[in-house]
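Please decode residue identities from the backbone states below.
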């Protein structure tokens, strides 16, 4: 049995009277890519926000359940402490700081991380190695980048905090297929250098190719879970999420 990176147990979340998640349990083994699939409103973003503790900004709150990272509870921490613990979210829609330069966006990503200048410089070198365009455009305003480049910047900004677990919310959303494939390759590369990944995607084909394990959320509940290969072969997943009739 692989060492657990993340363990979400029986998590229920509400936004006032709206129940967004019901008794959801998800595991990310250390070093794995785990995918969460599901249609609009299934609760995917809510799950990531509950883990990163940014849920409160949406007026959401967990009503029960627990979240542990590397064996320690993280569900009582502030969002900044979750980052410092090694769990970093890339939000849906990138949310880069449009008026700031690319370089300043990346610097902002390092603010919450532990470690000194040497570590930050090494993280920046790694980000530039993964995304040379971010070095070329360092002084440009982030708002001037293309959608794909902004997704690279959002990923790069998260990497500046040197995460051991990345939470990715729909990284391929709105991107042309080639760019989506490029982002997927980079996620694999990031994972290969030791970062676990919890990937939320509407693009099930990409997610199931990257992940070792996947969960399907339907109206706030885990409807299916298992090895990604098995889910990719299941009639229900093929019909509902892969567009195969
Ligand atoms: P999408 O892909 O459309 O973002 P999702 O699977 O990420 O969908 P969530 O955004 O987690 O789904 O939403 C789950 C449920 O919670 C939906 O019914 C949604 O309407 C509701 N919800 C999400 N955010 C809020 C909020 N701030 N206030 C009230 N209800 C919310």
């Amino acid at each position: 049995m692989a060492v657990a990176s993340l363990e979400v147990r029986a998590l229920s979340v509400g936004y006032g009277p709206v129940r967004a998640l019901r008794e959801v349990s998800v595991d990310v083994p250390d070093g794995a890519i785990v995918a969460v699939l599901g249609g609009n409103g299934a609760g995917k973003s809510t799950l990531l926000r509950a883990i990163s503790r940014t849920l409160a900004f949406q007026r959401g709150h967990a009503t029960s359940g627990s979240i542990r990272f590397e064996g320690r509870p993280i569900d009582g921490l502030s969002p900044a402490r979750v980052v410092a613990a090694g769990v970093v979210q890339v939000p849906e829609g990138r949310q880069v700081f449009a008026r700031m330069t690319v370089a300043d966006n990346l610097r902002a990503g390092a603010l919450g991380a532990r470690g000194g200048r040497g570590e930050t410089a090494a993280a920046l070198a790694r980000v530039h190695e993964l995304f040379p365009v971010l070095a070329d455009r360092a002084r440009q305003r982030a708002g001037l980048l293309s959608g794909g480049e902004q997704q690279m910047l959002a990923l790069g900004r998260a990497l500046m905090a040197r995460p051991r677990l990345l939470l990715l919310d729909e990284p391929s959303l709105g991107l042309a297929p080639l760019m989506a494939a490029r982002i997927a390759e980079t996620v694999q590369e990031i994972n290969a250098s030791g970062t676990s990944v919890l990937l939320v995607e509407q693009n099930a084909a990409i997610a199931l190719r990257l992940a070792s394990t996947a969960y399907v959320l339907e109206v706030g509940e885990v409807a299916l879970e298992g090895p990604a290969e098995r889910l990719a072969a299941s009639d229900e997943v093929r019909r509902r999420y892969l567009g195969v009739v």
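Observation: Strands lie at 4-15, 18-29, 33-37, 60-69, 72-73, 87-90, 165-169, 196-201, 213-218, 221-227.
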